[in-house]
Write the structure tokens for this entry.
Amino acid sequence: MGGIGKTQICLKFKDEASEYYSYVFWIDATSEETIDQSLKDIYKINNMSMLSGVSYSPDMTLLWISNLE
């Protein structure tokens, strides 16, 4: 589905809804590997290992995201 404006729609949503959300995460869903890498990047950027004391796992990152307000 290349070239139909998916990225532009997401960026417009981010701009218009940013006052309602504290975080916006961009997850590359091209493959399982890119999803995992995106979640790993979120884990690293937010210093979750220091906060949680546990090593990376996709489930740990998703749990952290689900508890954000």
